[in-house]
Amino acid sequence: MIHELLLALSGYPGTIFTWNKRTGLQVSQDLPFLHPSETSVLNRLSKLGSDYMRFTEFIEQHTGHVHQQEHHMNQQNQTVLHGIYLRAFCTGLDSMLQPYRQALLDLEREFLGDPHLTISHVNYKLDQFQLLFPSVMMVVETIKSQKIHGCQILETVYKHSCGGLPPVRMALEKILAVCHGVMYKQLAAWMLHGLLLDQNEEFFVKQGPSAGGAAANQEEEEEDLGLGGLSGKQLRELQDLRLIEEENMLAPSLQQFSLRTEMLPSYIPIRVAEKILFVGESVQMFENHTHGPSRAGSILKHQEDTFATELHKLKQQPLFSLVDFENLIDRIRSTVAEHLWTLMVEESDLLEQLKIIKDFYLLGRGELYQVFIDLAQHMLKTPPTAVTEHDVNVAFQQAAHKVLLDDDNLLPLLHLTIDYQGKDCKEATGPRDGATPPQDTSPREVPPTGWAALGLTYKVQWPLHILFTPAVLEKYNVVFRYLLSVRRVQSQLQHCWALQMQRKHLKSTQMDAVKWRLRNHMAFLIDNLQYYLQVDVLESQFSQLLQQINSTRDFESIRLAHDHFLSNLLAQSFILLKPVGSLLTYVTVLIRHLGQK
Question: Where is the Gamma tubulin complex component protein N-terminal domain (predicted)?
Fold first, then answer.
């Protein structure tokens, strides 16, 4: 019977030890020579055999490995679980079972040498597995019942390994180390070569936009913070530099990747995952750019082999060390960030590009827009038509020539756009390079004037497109339209003053004096607003941005400084304050009435 027991514990039930799918392995009840205490001990041992058979069945189902037995495998009940992390888990589980198999072999050898050994000896030898197998079975059942997938398996195994039983902890740590091997291979492909090897969507980096915050934003209340009409949602929009969904307006040459946070194990902080995402995106951009290597060389400065060796060393460690892991990620990120800084600041002349942005989006070339306003006033004061965009671009070119702005390399990169009703269907077939695609194709109201539909596009050159993304340029467009409206109102007030000066020799009435005082008050307000915007906001923030760029050699620091710059522009210029927009509209209407006489 001892050999029947060892065979049953090895996964081969027979007549004495029978197998039932529901109850597992049990000693037969039809054996009169067994004492109840012996039956109890045998059933206790049979639980180990049951767990072992279920382990091997799980391994066979998900790896195709066939061990010593071909027991009752139900092919029609194949689970939908799949993936390389699950196969790695099964590999680790199989290695965990090896000491158990060896213990059975040792027992068989001992019984062959001493036939008088009892069942108690088997119970003693296998007692170490009585705590281990049920704990590991809980992990397997959790994976099966909850359909745990991909990197979530790492989290599940890690949580169960944090218990107080040393044998269980050590076994699960070995399984976790095998699963980490898959993660390190994916990390090496992503961070060193820009390859996202993830056919089954198991990695915590994915291609495409993040979909985490959309539902939460819909539930946000429009609470009034008491800041002159600024609501809580608007304040969050000012602070959130992803105000506009970038995934709807990405240039074809720039693929977007994001974190799949539900796959990220809890022992890897989100800050580390974001560094991994940044490195992979940067390397992937260089790998996909055809003339990038000839211009800039390797973004990792030809240290791919060194970093690959260090990742392999981490893979060989029996326990995951967050300190060592994050230190290596930081070194790779620093190498990439410094190379990007050199490429952008020194080779692509980022400071000159920022000056262009300031001159045209932030109205740094005030004389250009003053001439443009005079030339385009008659064509933009009415609702736009299909030819308005062409006409305003002609006027823009004329204004540039009048102020002696004849840069043949710069002007072709700038293009004024008019977003009018009916334009969507036309631009859907072939949008202009660098232009912001329409956000939706639903019918929209016709803008009341061409000024309300005016926008500016700038064709950003590689690799500056990773800093000046379409979403960032769209936020610059928000500032551009706002500053241009202030400039137009100021110009109209100055024109109104000129008309009043022409009529001052005529006999004036008391109503004329009221109009003059009103114009004077409005001019005082708009002139001070314009001074505040140009000096206290734009020049001050731009100087801080240049200082921060020159004080670092890290691209991420540049991107953060630029994001803060743009966020501060939106916040300090009152763009999202409804009273300011209403004020400009009201002043425009008053000026129109003042100029009628």
Answer: 2-347
